[in-house]
Amino acid sequence: MEGTSVIDSLYHYKGHLGCDSKCWIRIFTRDQAYIVIATELPDNPGTSITNMAGTLATSVAIEFDIEPERLVWIEHYPARPDADHGETYDLVTFSWDGLRFSEPQWKHLGKEKAELIAGRELDQAAQRQLH
Fold it and tell me: How many CB atoms lie within 10 A of CB 118?
């Protein structure tokens, strides 16, 4: 079954100490799950998606009415000329205390596995925003 796109847009959030932050969010539905791909943008003025993982996942789940047990969270960092690494995709799992996600754990996926989870290619809108 191919993943169906629900959201594909810029997402603003408050980072540490209330600083303005932003990322690109893509949400797909597939097999009763909501796959969220959060992409770190090179011009994010605030806290990274990694440093806000639990808070950001909680905000997105609440805003888009995603039940915690149906959330699949993937962090995406595009390749950048000024970075020591290429493009990365990581599956992030959390603990859920009934109110919020916490205790993130990262597992490197690679692009091919991320695409299998999402049920589609992942080269679309977020890439346009990076240039």
Answer: 23
